[in-house]
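Dear H.,

Thanks for agreeing to be a second pair of eyes. The structure we're designing against is below in token form, covering all 1082 positions.
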């Protein structure tokens, strides 16, 4: 309907100006009215036409009110507003129009009506309470809280509690909770008594603010007013206490309510869930069910997440079935639209948490709307959690096709899937896609990309992402530190950790778990202690996983005491803890304690897993404890672990180190799928047990199935060294050179050791000088090599050079230098190094060190000093030490001391024939034949058998073995003729070594002269006859060379002008021009 202009309204019918009235009807007044009614035609639309008094159609005042009432009942707001500007309109008509504006949520109409109320003069002396109330309610329902408050403030006195309550409710809905609480205080000061709804409203505001103190005050006030028993008030109180975390108070309110409705039950269930009382939430649902109350969708929305957190899949299915039966699960408009989105999302969450992805997917597919990214993330995350990464990526593609934009959680899940599939290309594509969508700078996305690049061994890209992040959280730091540690960049990981700490970033257990392995690998013991102290200070040490990593760190740093202390103080130990302490004891050489740890582990009811079994077997291998190793083998068989490859390899290592190669080979042959470790273990076992031929045979077999690696080279080279097979050693050197294995420290050291033991000391030194990085083992091998070849001064010079270069010697290094001094007769130098080891380097001497010192003293003729040295040893001497002294007695013809020492030797090893042979030789040299006869009779009664010595030489690619007393060689006649000529020439020149007498042959453990059948002379003769001139004759003997063979080799070297290199069980002898490098120290 057209609205006439304001100029056409007569003066007596025109509504008065807004209150307070302006002094003139200028344009300024019209502008002000325009503010109240934003529409440009507000005034014109509300005013009647100027010629209204002349119009015959304009109704009288009594009819106007009736028409307005009728128009309001019919909902014709525009016509009602037009008539509202007529004369004679009463309060009821204004109220009816305001009520209609409220119902129709017409803010523009309400503002026009408000203007007309003011224009009628009703608001000059203050807004009437009835119209003011309606205006306030109208503005609140139309969402104009500011206008409602202005009208409220204009009212001279508001005694109706409903107005106060409505305004407070408006503030609560608008989120201005503090203003709602202040309004309640103002109402209380004005003396207006609140009702139950007012109390409920203010409690809602207080709950939103989280002000438990104000809530308790209001609680006391409402109890005083007698509202405590009302259901609505109780519901509001429960919501308040639940929101503030006081769930026990909320439960007390709930239990004290005389009447409860569905809202009460929903409130208490929701409160229990929000405060983590998931079990109580499910219990209250059960009580609600048995009381016969109707369960609505609100109840289910609270209970289903509780079932998810508890893993109550059965309860969740019951609720699912109830929702289907009652129709709550479906959209109200039509079943064809599918499952309600909110309830469906909760069901998907419950099924995903309970691991039932099939049911979750069915609910998801039946949902009417999938516009929420949350439900997509739930299902994608569920698939990723169980390892179905391809399905998760397929779901992401479907979401992308549906036009739903991903969020940070979607991206994080997406990158996790790509990372787990180890598809670098897909990861790069995803990274570009995320950058295109604008997620590249978000923290969660960057964290996921750092994790992806780290797992894909693209650490530089991970560092680029990390450095480009505008903001980093603790997960960012943990991801990059963990990634550097995972990819072996331990120094970088520690550097990042220090940066993180200095920047004040909070450290959590994941941070410590990431940096401690780096400390362990680099043996940063001090930093590890600092991190340990931080974990104690913050209480993180109580986490079992962190304690386990600390155990490993201290174990790697050889601090087994700290490892043991942490282990004993742990409240909860799992199988990882026990494995870590077993590994620590094994690394520390405390092999004898491992068996006790296994017993403790069994008493605490923890079953060893494959890692614990493997660690224990390594310990028993180190201690050569065959009995304990067999018991662990039996346990592995009983528990079905005997076919697990790491256990199989550890079993082979244990049997090999215990000398039982037959059992090791049986295990090896019983494994269907062997890896390179299996082959290396058995090859190394053969080499260790001096079964060099078996080692080379297995190595040849391995070449047909596996490609040898650097470890294989370090295992087979000792076999060549034990045979003194220089030709085979050079073949291995060539193979390692072609494969690029010389960069490996173990291979380089094994090659040096091979050349040393094959007598090629010059080649060993050349290889040593070419090493780019020399470790302690490299120096020790070279020092021991000089000592083995009788070059003690060179060994000392190299040892001092090692210390000058900053490498600190260990027990093995001192053993090598003492050995060198012993075989060169350097008595004073030997004592100096022994004192430095004890006092300067704080190394406790072991049996091998004492043996070297006894050898040194006996070789230099200090027999009595050697005897006193043995008596003063803090540890019990073994037979080898006494035999060293006994051999010195033979060299220096001290019969009395020899008899005394022999008694000690026979007590320790009464069944060893070599010791009796050595004493018999001492008697024979002194021509005490009666003593020789008595000793012969004594041993003959024991039934001991002779162990023949042997020697071998390599010529034309074949190894020729000569056994003591056996002359059945194809070239036996030639060799005999040559040796007869040597004997004749020696006799002519006055070289007639005194004949030595012996009872029987000695094995390689004996340091005396036993009956060897002169096998070394046979081998030397073969070399002279078959090797070209100018080529050194290299002979190896399995026992110490006798004096006769030693003198014969010296004479042959001069007679034939040949270099002879003889290696016996004790050292090398270089014969050249009638001289030997040992100079008598052998």
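And this is the sequence the design step returned. I haven't edited it by hand at all.
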């Amino acid at each position: 309907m057209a609205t006439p202009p304001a100029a056409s309204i007569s003066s007596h019918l025109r509504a008065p100006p807004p209150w307070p009235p302006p002094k003139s009807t200028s344009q300024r007044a019209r502008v002000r009215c325009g503010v109240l009614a934003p529409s440009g035609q507000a005034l014109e639309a509300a005013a009647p036409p100027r010629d209204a008094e002349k119009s015959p159609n304009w109704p009288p005042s009594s009819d106007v009110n009736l028409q307005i009432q009728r128009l309001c009942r019919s909902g014709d707001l525009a016509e009602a507003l037009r008539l509202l500007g007529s004369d004679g309109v009463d309060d009821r008509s204004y109220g009816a129009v305001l009520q209609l504006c409220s119902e129709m949520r017409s803010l523009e109409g309400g503002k026009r009506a408000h203007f007309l109320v003011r224009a009628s003069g009703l608001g000059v002396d203050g807004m009437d309470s009835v119209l003011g109330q309606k205006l306030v309610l109208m503005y609140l329902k139309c969402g104009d809280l500011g206008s409602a408050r202005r009208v409220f403030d204009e009212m001279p006195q508001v005694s109706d509690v409903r107005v106060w309550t409505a305004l407070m409710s408006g503030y609560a809905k608008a989120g201005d909770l503090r203003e709602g609480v202040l309004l309640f205080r103002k109402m209380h000061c004005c003396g207006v008594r609140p009702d139950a709804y007012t109390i409920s409203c203010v409690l809602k505001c207080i709950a939103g603010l989280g002000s438990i103190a104000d809530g308790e005050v209001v609680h006391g006030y409402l109890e005083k007013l007698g509202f405590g028993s009302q259901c609505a008030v109780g519901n509001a109180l429960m919501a308040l206490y639940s929101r503030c975390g006081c769930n026990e108070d909320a439960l007390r309110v709930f239990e004290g309510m005389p009447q409860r409705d569905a809202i009460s039950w929903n409130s208490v269930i929701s409160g229990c869930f929000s405060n983590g009382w998931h079990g109580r939430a499910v219990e209250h649902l059960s009580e609600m069910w048995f009381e016969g109350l109707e369960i609505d969708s609100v109840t289910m929305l609270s209970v289903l997440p509780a079932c998810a957190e508890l893993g109550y899949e059965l309860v969740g299915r019951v609720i699912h079935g109830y929702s289907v039966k009652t129709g709550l699960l479906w959209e109200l408009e039509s079943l064809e639209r599918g499952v309600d989105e909110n309830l469906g999302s909760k069901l998907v969450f419950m099924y995903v948490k309970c691991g039932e992805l099939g049911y979750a997917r069915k609910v998801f597919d039946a949902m009417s709307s999938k516009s929420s990214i949350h439900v997509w993330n739930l299902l994608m995350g569920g698939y990723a959690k169980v390892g179905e990464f391809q399905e998760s990526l397929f779901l992401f593609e479907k979401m992308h096709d549906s036009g739903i934009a991903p969020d940070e959680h979607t991206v994080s899940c997406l990158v996790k899937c790509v990372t787990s599939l180890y598809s670098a290309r897909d990861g790069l594509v995803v990274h570009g896609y995320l950058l295109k969508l604008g997620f590249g700078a978000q923290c969660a996305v960057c964290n996921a990309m750092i994790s992806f690049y780290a797992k894909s061994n693209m650490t530089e890209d991970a560092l680029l992402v990390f450095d480009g992040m505008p903001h980093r959280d603790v997960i960012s730091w943990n991801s990059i530190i963990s990634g550097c540690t995972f990819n072996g960049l331990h120094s970088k990981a520690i550097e990042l950790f220090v940066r993180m700490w200095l920047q004040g970033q909070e450290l959590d257990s994941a941070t410590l778990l990431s940096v401690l392995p780096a400390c362990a690998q680099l043996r940063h013991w001090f930093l590890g202690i600092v991190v340990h102290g931080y974990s104690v200070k913050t209480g993180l040490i109580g986490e079992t996983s962190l304690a386990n990593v600390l155990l490993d760190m201290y174990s790697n740093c050889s601090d087994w005491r700290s490892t043991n202390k942490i282990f004993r103080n742990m409240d909860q130990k799992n199988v990882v803890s026990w494995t870590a302490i077993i590994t620590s004891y094994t690394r520390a050489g405390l092999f004898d304690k491992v068996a006790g740890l296994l017993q403790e582990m069994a008493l605490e009811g923890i079953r060893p897993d494959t890692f614990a079994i493997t660690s224990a077997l390594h310990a028993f291998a180190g201690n050569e404890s065959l009995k304990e190793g067999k018991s662990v083998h039996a346990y592995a068989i009983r528990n079905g672990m005997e076919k697990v490859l790491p256990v199989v390899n550890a079993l082979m290592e244990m049997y090999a180190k215990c000398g039982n190669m037959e059992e090791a080979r049986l295990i090896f042959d019983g494994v269907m799928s062997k890896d390179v470790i299996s082959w290396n273990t058995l090859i190394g076992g053969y080499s260790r047990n001096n079964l060099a031929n078996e080692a080379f045979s297995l190595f040849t077999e391995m070449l047909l199935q596996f490609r040898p690696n650097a470890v294989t080279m370090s295992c087979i080279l000792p076999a060549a060294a034990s045979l003194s097979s220089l030709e085979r050693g050079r073949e291995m050197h060539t193979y390692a050179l072609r494969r690029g294995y010389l960069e490996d420290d173990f291979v380089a050291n094994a090659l040096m050791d091979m050349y040393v033991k094959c007598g090629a000391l010059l080649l060993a030194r050349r290889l040593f000088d070419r090493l780019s990085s020399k470790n302690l083992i490299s120096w020790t091998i070279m020092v021991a090599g000089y000592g083995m070849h009788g070059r003690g001064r060179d060994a000392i010079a190299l040892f001092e050079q090692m210390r000058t270069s900053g490498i600190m010697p260990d027990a093995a290094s001192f053993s090598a230098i003492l050995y060198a001094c012993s075989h060169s007769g350097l008595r004073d130098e030997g004592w100096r190094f022994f004192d430095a080891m004890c006092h300067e380097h704080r190394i406790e001497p072991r049996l091998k060190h004492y043996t070297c010192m006894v050898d040194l003293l006996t070789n230099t003729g200090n027999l009595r000093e050697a005897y006193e040295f043995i008596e003063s040893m803090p540890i019990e001497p073994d037979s080898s030490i006494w035999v060293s002294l006994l051999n010195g007695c033979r060299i220096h013809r001290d019969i009395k001391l020899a008899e005394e020492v022999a008694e000690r030797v026979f007590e320790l090893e009464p069944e060893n024939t070599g010791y009796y042979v050595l004493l018999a030789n001492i008697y024979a040299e002194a021509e005490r034949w009666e003593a020789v006869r008595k000793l012969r009779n004594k041993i003959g009664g024991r039934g001991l058998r002779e162990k023949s010595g042997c020697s071998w030489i390599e010529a034309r690619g074949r190894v020729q073995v000569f056994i003591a007393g056996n002359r059945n060689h194809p070239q036996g006649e030639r060799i005999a003729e040559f040796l007869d000529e040597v004997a004749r020439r020696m006799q002519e020149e006055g070289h007639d070594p005194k004949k030595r007498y012996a009872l029987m042959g000695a094995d390689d453990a004996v340091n005396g002269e036993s009956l060897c059948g002169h096998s070394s002379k046979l081998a030397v003769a073969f070399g002279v006859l078959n090797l070209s001139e100018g080529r050194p004759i290299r002979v190896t003997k399995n026992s110490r060379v006798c004096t006769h063979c030693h003198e014969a080799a010296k004479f042959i070297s001069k007679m034939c002008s040949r270099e002879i290199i003889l290696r016996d069980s004790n050292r090398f002898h270089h014969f050249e021009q009638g001289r030997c490098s040992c100079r008598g120290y052998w």
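Two observations from my side: DSSP finds 57 helices and six strands in the chain. Residues 951-994+1010-1076 form one domain.

Warmly,
E.
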